[in-house]
Each structure stands twice: as C-alpha cells, then as structure tokens.
C-alpha cells in the first residue's frame, strides 16, 4: 500500500495549518493528530510577507539567504506567501500593500542594503512605520546597519524586532537609539555545503569577483601573475532559486513591473567572450586576462560555484558571501574589503580579524598562514549562527 505524505500546509477547521514533519496520513496516530490538532504534531500556520527578496538577483549568497528565510520560517510555523523583490519598491503597488495588510507579519530582509540612508535603505526602513500604523507586526532581520541618518534610524524604531548580522552594525544601531540583537548572516545556518565538505582540497586558488571595483582590480591584477589561480563570478545561472524548495515558493512576487506568480529570471551578461578579448587586447597576459574576464563575468550553475569553493586550496573572497561559503565548506580564505564594514564585522565576531587582507596583494599570504585554530573558530561561529537563526525565527513566530 502506498504511503501518502503531507509535506505542504493543510487546512483544518477553516485555518491553514503547518506540519513541521511529514505526516503518514494512513497511520492511525497521524489521523488522530490531524483530527484533534495535537500541538506536538502541528501548529497554526501564519502568513508572512517578505520585503527585499534578493533571490530575484542571480547572486548565490542572496539566493541562499532567501531560501533560508523561507525554510526557517516554515519550521517555526510561518509561510512566506508573497515577497517584494529587491528590484521593486513595495510602496508603489497597492495590491501588494493590501497583501501586507492581510498578513500576520511582515519580514524585512536587510542584507547589505541598510547603509548610507540610500533610497533603497529608506524604502526598507519605511516598512516599520507603515506596519505600526496598520497594526501589523514587522521585523527587520539579517541586516547591516551603517552610516544611516536620524530619519532612517527613527523609521527603524517602529519595527517590533531588529536583528543585525554582526556586532559592528549593532554598535552603529545602538548609537542611534535602536534596540537590536545580533544573529550571524543566514547563509551560515544553511546546509548548502553539506555534500561538498568531504572534498579533498586541490592545488588551485579561487579568486572571486568584488563589489569594490578598485579592490577587485588590484586583487585580480596580482592574481594574474600566478599560474595556480582560477577566477569566479558568484552569480548563478539558474532561472529560479535552486536552493528554495518548490513548496516554499511564494504565491506572488512584486517585481518592478508589478505582481506576478512567475518572476522573470535574472538577465545574463551578453557577448562575454567578445567583450573579454576586446578588454584584454594588447595588455599583459592577454590570453590569461581574457579568460579571467570571462570567468569573472559569466554565470555558473550553483553546484559548480559550491564545488569550486569546496575544492579550492584557498579562496580570495571579494564578496561577503564568498567568505560565508568558504566557512561552510571548511576552505581556508582571505577576505577582502567591500562597500561596508560587514565583512570586518563578521570576522571580528568570529575571532578571525586576521583573515582580512586589507591589501589585496597580501591575500595569498593570509591564506598560507591558515591554522587549525581558524578551523575551530569557523566551526564555533557556524554553530552559533545555526542556533541563533532558529531562536530568531521562534521569536518572530511568537509575535505574529
């Protein structure tokens, strides 16, 4: 006899219910739990809306983050029913605002946006006052907080809970009168590297792309002089988020052109090889330079990116999430500076500030000094990240 499993939300007495474990509905005990709503088997399912869905970008780290938000929310008894893309302004779409008003809680994924009181930062901060006036619980999670003005800070004060990613951001936020908690970046609570950690390290270093153009230029020019280097862009080639379980996909996503059930895939760069050779023409290491430009531009399957990080002798991490993936893989790395101090903050919290290469030309030397104590520090930090992430979502569920 086939066994039927309930893996998605079900309905009971007119309410949507969440099953934290699959139920064998042909089992009498499971039938009894379904009929009587036993608390240890299922819980009332709460509707959540996510603002700043960065998984509509191709960046691997962003896609892991959003998949983790959906998965951790589900384990806590919430489902993300709708999201607002990083490319959209939630304030411009009345249908989406109505979806927010009909939700039990609104979650804002801050990531690297809440700095310098940018237009995007102000749009995210504005969620707090709106939800407060509408009587909807709202939380700001997984965020940097740096160099913001008093207006942005005042708006953030309306969130019911704020969770920043590292202690430096907590210091900036506290200085402006905000009450915050620290939970490490949500990629570090994921299992995306689970099947790659056993890989034997090779003899090649990986150098990633960099959000800071000048730092990236110095790092790549220096790396071009070496024969043991591969270059990698952190963007994934999949049309949809490869880390997000199908049954956890939102029903609606607000994109720049309006609400949709099927967001358009991220655009890939065009004429990569042609542009690479044009840029490399008549420059030193012309062939190697052209191949480097191609590798730092083209998108790869997510599995290939994870594989490259796991098999690397070391990673020169030009991206914040490249450092996170290296931690998860157990791969030695040197972190480069970015557009905020988020990387410095994370490394300080992990007791690994010495892994920061303030001069990109020192990155390979930093990796060569990697010790067993660094492996131990990474393991402790990841364990903390996983515990804190679960506790954070339990706290969010409690106010929804």
Topology:
Blueprint: E1 5-6, E2 10-12, E3 15-18, E4 23-24, H1 28-36, E5 43-44, E6 46-53, H2 60-76, E7 78-85, H3 94-101, E8 105-111, H4 119-125, H5 127-134, E9 138-143, H6 150-156, E10 161-164, H7 167-175, E11 181-182, E12 205-208, H8 213-223, E13 229-232, E14 252-255, E15 258-260, H9 272-280, H10 286-295, H11 302-311, E16 314-317, H12 320-329, E17 333-335, H13 342-349, H14 363-368, H15 372-399
Parallel strand pairs: 6-7, 6-8, 7-14, 8-9, 9-10, 10-11, 12-13, 12-16, 16-17
Antiparallel strand pairs: 1-4, 2-3, 3-5, 14-15
Helix pairs in contact: 9-10
Polypeptide structure, described:
This protein has an 8-stranded mixed sheet, with helices on both faces. It has a 4-stranded parallel sheet with strand order 13-12-16-17, with helices on both faces. The protein is of the alpha/beta class and 400 residues long. The chain has 15 helices and 17 strands. Helix 9 runs antiparallel to helix 10 (286-295). The protein has helices spanning 28-36, 60-76, 94-101, 119-125, 127-134, 150-156, 167-175, 213-223, 272-280, 286-295, 302-311, 320-329, 342-349, 363-368, 372-399, and strands at residues 5-6, 10-12, 15-18, 23-24, 43-44, 46-53, 78-85, 105-111, 138-143, 161-164, 181-182, 205-208, 229-232, 252-255, 258-260, 314-317, 333-335. Among the domains are: 1-44, no CATH class; 205-240 and 265-383, Rossmann fold (3-Layer(aba) Sandwich). Strand 9, helix 6 and strand 10 (161-164) form a beta-alpha-beta unit.
